[in-house]
């Protein structure tokens, strides 16, 4: 009920916004809160509404449970307990199983690992139970296997409140005859003890035989796998494939890196070599020869003398002709120096340098044929005889070094490529070899472990089969509870539990039926249902009033509850709710001058609310115009006993003046009514016309408040044309009547339409638990909220 207290104060303004998209109405909305948890308040409201249904179903199921409980016969129960494992350390050491399960050491707490689940299933096996039945039949011939199977329970004993299970197995048997129960318990205990020794020894023998049958083949397999693994290791020199594979992969990576580095250096040296050749225009051999000539002192002196002679020839030829004795003498001297330089070069490098060009005579022949013939060296690179300065000598040294470096890197590259191919082939073969090695190793390991386990288990079974003492002992004798006189005491009856279960089942079924019923009805019952489903502000809460449609006897002044003359609580709450609704509208910001009252489906009370709201506003001193826009099924003229000769439809279809058709209401001097007028087809077209918009603007300018009573929205589009022209849309939802799905479809229809805002008016609200609706607490809290100055919308 906390939601109602904040109905008036927690509803924010919706003006200027479109309706937010709402989640689809689901069947479980009443029971699931927005955070997908159980909505206990909604569930409680459902239980309160359907209390009679739930109580009826619970009564029926309880009666059936009582009837069935009366049929349950008296039963007797007895039990015995067997200790199946040693408890103390002394007992464990003395037990023959210690030798097999601890290898002769002192046993720990968890040495005896008995599989209790399997052991209990063996004790309840048909073979075991049949042997017990045959012994019991000697005294009780009618006893059967089914009786034993239904009455006998065997389980591991677990003390109450303790998470640790004991080493004790408890057997329980129930039946109608106490003597039969005692006999069955005694025979069952003896049979279990006999099984613990003889039958188990027999099983040990079968286990030993099975193991011995498996050993030869398994030993042969282990030997074969060992031989295969040894041959593989010898063939490929394998010790540890994992580490060897990593080493081989690392070597391949190193060789690859070295090859890339060598290729990079080789490319760099080749580029340097080509650049140096282009700069020097010498081959390595020619560069060596030029360097040797440049470093010989005699040759350098001859070069200097040649340069001096050439300088003198250049001077003299500028003064004299080539036939001048001076020029010819200098030419002869130059030829002699060339011959000497050729001889010196032949001596130093073993080859003749390139010829040095001489000045030609006018006839195209040498001026000194003898000198020219003597000075003509063999063919060669003239750069060899040229003067080599320190820079060229440095470049020559780099050229020679680059050539040597290229030869060395090429040789290294060939060796690296050869080694890389070898390692690549080994690396390509290695995965298959390693896989074969791993497969053989795994198979050998599995076979060896299996062989070891079988050998160990065989020795274990031999030791356990050799014991002669009964390994189990009875810690609680087979007995039936008896009273002080020695008479058997019946087991506690299940009748009481059955009755309690019947009551609980009835309440559960009743609650489920109530939820299904409300889901089938699919309507709103309380304001909480509306607020949890529709996230829109609530402008007013109108309680149920039996005479709302028949009487319009309201006071003509807008006063407090104490000023009203009618002391009936129902009428007072009903009237005060419209005062609250009008207050919220009057105090809204921005002010509301035009609003429309509509509903999701017919019969929700929208016309009644529009009428009483208009009367309340008129009683507060405002000029109010109440317009009936329901051109399909008008109702206002009937409720106010007015003529409906002409009305809104006439204004929209003719040139009739509004003053001629607007009528004054008999309820108040300042309350005016515009009836719907004559019904005609195409009402939606009329309400959406430009003439209707002009009329609404005129009404807004002429009256303080204009209220439009429209048709319902589900399946009808008439009211949709008015949403953009009013300041507020009041959507009426009637509790106990309006369908949830219909409201959802209407809100989806309104989503996106141009409108100022939408608020809810909850109608026909009844007090919970009061089907007559004489008064309701929601209205009380709404009135209290209004008195505290907390309007519900858009303050």
Would you write up a description of this structure?
- There is one protein chain.
- This protein is an alpha/beta fold and 795 residues long.
- Residues 1-20, 25-35, 351-379, 554-567 and 768-795 have low confidence and may be disordered.
- Helix content is 55%, strand content 9%.
- The strands form two sheets. The protein has an eight-stranded mixed sheet with strand order 5-12-11-6-10-7-9-8, sandwiched between helices.
Reconstruct the topology from this structure:
Elements: H1 2-5, H2 40-49, H3 51-69, E1 76-83, H4 89-94, H5 97-102, H6 116-123, H7 126-136, H8 145-151, E2 152-156, E3 168-175, H9 178-236, H10 241-280, H11 284-295, H12 297-319, H13 325-349, H14 369-375, H15 390-465, E4 473-479, H16 495-521, H17 527-533, E5 538-543, H18 569-586, E6 594-599, H19 606-619, E7 624-628, H20 636-640, H21 648-653, H22 658-661, E8 663-664, E9 671-674, H23 683-687, H24 690-702, E10 705-709, E11 728-734, H25 740-750, E12 758-765, H26 777-787
Helix pairs in contact: 3-16, 7-9, 9-15, 10-15, 11-15, 12-13, 13-14, 18-19, 18-26
